Model the fold of this input.
Amino acid sequence: MFEDLLAIREAALAELSRIETSDELTELSTSVLGRGGKLTAILRTMGKLSAEERAELGKRANAVKQELTEMFEERKAKLSEIAEQKRIEREAVDVTLPGVRRAVSAGALNPLTLVYREIRDALIGLGFTTFEGPEVEYDEYNFTLLNLPPNHPARDMQDTFYVNDKVLLRTHTSPCEARALKTLDLPFRLVIPGRCFRVDEPDASHSPVFMQMEGLVVDRNVSLADLKGTIDSFVKAVFGENVESRLRPSYFPFTEPSAEVDISCTICGGKGCSSCKGTGWMEIMGCGITNPHEIENCGHSSDEWRAFAWGVGVDRVACLKYGISDIRLIYEGDGRFLSQFK
Amino acid sequence: MKLPLKWLKEYVDFNVTPAEFSERMLLRGFEVAEIIPEMGPVDGVYVCEITAIEPHPNADKLRVCTVDVGKEEPLQIVTNATNVKVGDQVPVALDNAKLTGGLEIHPTKMRGVASAGMFCGSEELGITNVEYPGCENGGVMVFFEKHPNGQRIQEALDMDDCIFDIELTPNRPDCQSIIGICREAAAALGQSFREPDPRIVEGEGDCRDIARVTVENPYLCPRYTARVVTDLKIEPSPLWLQRKLKLVGLRPINNIVDITNLVLVEYGHPMHAFDLACVADSHIVVRNAKQDEIVYTLDGKERVMSDDMLLIADPTKGVGVAGVMGGLNSEITENTKATLFESAVFRPENIRSTARRLHHVTDSAARFIKGVEPVNAEKALARAIELVDELKAGKVMGGMIDVCAADLAEKQVTASVSHINEILNTDLSAEKMAELLGSINIPTEAIGDALSIRVPHFRTDIEDGIETDWDIAEEVGRLYGYTNIAPTLMRGDTFRGRVGRSFKDEDIVKDTMAALGCLELYNYNFISPKEIENLMIPENDERRKTVKLLNPFGEDQSLMRTELAGGLLRAAALNLNRKTGFGRFFEVGNIHFDNGDLPEERKMLGVIHTGAGEDFFTIKGTVEALFEKLGIERVRFEKGGSDYLHPTQKAIMTVNGEKLGEIGAVHPKVQRAFELSAPAYIAEIDFAMLRGNIARVRKYKPLPKYPAVQRDLALIVEDSMEAQQVIDVIEAAKARVLVENVRVFDVYRPKLPGDKGIPMGKKSMAFTFQLRSDDHTLTDEEIGQAVNTILKSLKFRLGAELRA
Done:
């Protein structure tokens, strides 16, 4: 019986080496390992054997079964690899043939792009120019130059993704302020869009990747009143003439005085509703007069130059403007969402 | 920061509604996130008196009570409580009442008898013996003093106030205390602030005779004050103290712990109490830890210290991690006889780094990180000792240990009135500014254009230096009210605003992609290491030079992407799975390559097509349309490209020999790895290269004066021949006339031997082109010659035959 077992193994292996299609393989597998297969047949005859012989045969038969199963699987993978290779060859195209222009329905820009352009275009009219900087930044530009030295407690306000102790993913577009102050001729008015990153677990109102737009005005005589006027004019451009804005005191290390900007609730118009928690106002961004340390850190005299700046979350504005209830939709890529912004 | 209205009322006359108070605080920079009623959600519960009790006709365990709730008609309440009798006053929840745990009460029938509501126990009301002694009786709460029937439970228990949950900005650590926030609240309410001043208690003996403190690192510990209490009696605190702690959400423990907690809340200054018997030689040494020195903290954990961390020690061992947590070996226990109260100042940056590295930012550490100051340390200590005395918790020794390297003198700063008015664009007088600052206890004198300001110890945020005018402008502006500053438009030089060229180019590309039916994606920049494998990116490929995050959300978002393909594929898979019917997407985004310093940042355009009707040529059509829009001519498509693309359906796009990007079907293996139910087609284009080839200057070309003739050629070529090879030869043939607009318009492969006379292994390709001259109309002879030259060239160079 042990000889029979050996013979089955040899025969199966010989057969296997000749096989070229997966159909043949299935057939072979069934004829050897299947319920009515040769191996099973041997095991059926075990009743005649002594207990020891039975145990030994069972052991060996299982070893053969396992070996064959593995070899069949291996061959199966190989065959489908070969089949795929053949298919790939069959599918060859002449890549130099002209492309086909299909008539399809219009695509759409992401709401982030739409809102960014609206804010940008409102500011261009006020004399602003576009500027940009890298997404992966030096700690020095993201924090230190902006009046946030290492281990400053206010660094905890922005949970940061680090690459190493000197390099990080920018947590705001503000490092571009330092880049602009160090490289451009003063005075200037800049609008700086870009992706930013914070260690925020994604939820309906947070995304670890988000888009911010920085505004930065450097001149000799700008004031908090100018900041108010500038912000009010782009708030009206984006949300409509009847939307009011207000500033209220806050704190950011890079500005002083600092303020939060509220706009009258876009849902209820300021009467108070659940969206604005009954206050009539919605917070949209932070702003302020640039801290003199930042001006000095970047090589200018704070006696001579004064600046104001803000950073607005484009995502947040998009959510408010379009009534998007979950910020994750913006990044998820579902066509049924994206196609609504034609 | 939780500010109970009850505490506020101790120091300030409160004369407005909670909502009005919140609004005023908001406009001064203190946002009240929530106004929490003192009894939380409990509502609709009243005092009632039980006037009669009858057995329930259908239930032994229930009783039917008649109650007086102060209305004309009595009410009937069915209860299972056994601890009430006629004449008792108890709380009753009536229709629509709300209790803790989201419980709502409505009139109901209990075993056939109507009940207008429910008697309440302490648990349903969310109170304990601390708020009302004896209320935790296991049954219905019974009032032990007389109340008017129908009185709201909040009034009856004197729990009708609220708690303001106030968000603080990091520049105001002083307001992380009841006293600090009440100072601001008083100004907001226009009331005077009755600032408490702890009584200095001096007992027998001088603690300096029995205990010592040595500060070895005065930079990290600018001040260390301590006092000693002997004959300690550890016991529960009096109810008034327990109630106060519970108002701010703290659990009463024992008198000494409660005292330090109360002082922390009142003064914002963390303190620690050591068992003096456990401090060797009664000698506290504040020093840097030795590298790998081990301290067991109060929570029983082993803390391995580094030599830049500050340790509280005695001459033989560590007894606490400075500012973070006390040591287990010197903990106050029931057997403690004498204690040393520590009230110290530690450097915030150092505590921040220690607490973070020990992964243990305790309440105490959080305060030190926000910043505490040395004068307040002494006040907090005095207050603790005052409480010890008041609670008779022990015998206070005289004297105070004070190791102080900090400058305790008040800063004197000067600010410019005109500069502040310039910053704010206001016209406030020096006197007005002085008055505003005075309202929050910043004593200010107006001297001409200058404000002479004595900065109180608690205002550590006001700097003496270049920032002073801005600091003061912030205070003046805040107190005057930002809403009172009229908005203006900028004056001075005018500027020519402009959208930079790179931004404009991006606009055009995005608009064109949208016009070609694509939806715009913003994919996350984070990818998984698995994505690199799934895209079959080879070893040594630059796309393996990923930027790795030190603190990602998880392994699967630990790298910055080096390609857009993965994100495009994930979006395509999502849309196929959800059967959205949308299959065309694009993204303009950055990829990053690690190069040791700031990574190389490269902007890319990625396009994907998937779903019915899409193939290699439809995505090629899309990018060709983009190139056309941008005026980029003569882009060549040459076989080849990344491994993630289908081996026989991919091409590298070049212009003037430089690589613009890649295009192709997605490799079947990749399609499986990204679980796409249909083939997908991708193009990735280097945005800078794309921009660099945009036709910026468009010049008019004169229209041809002489007509062109069109010729078509059907050729028999090798099956592997590419149309581009033929076009290149046609264009390069020395035809002596202009050969223009060469295009392939038909390809036919024989299906069987002899099919349309085309041998197997060959195919027919039909081309069309125009022949023209700039200076005359071509003659038939010229045309014939040109076509012949072209055909000869095709035969010679490609072995192409004219199809019969």
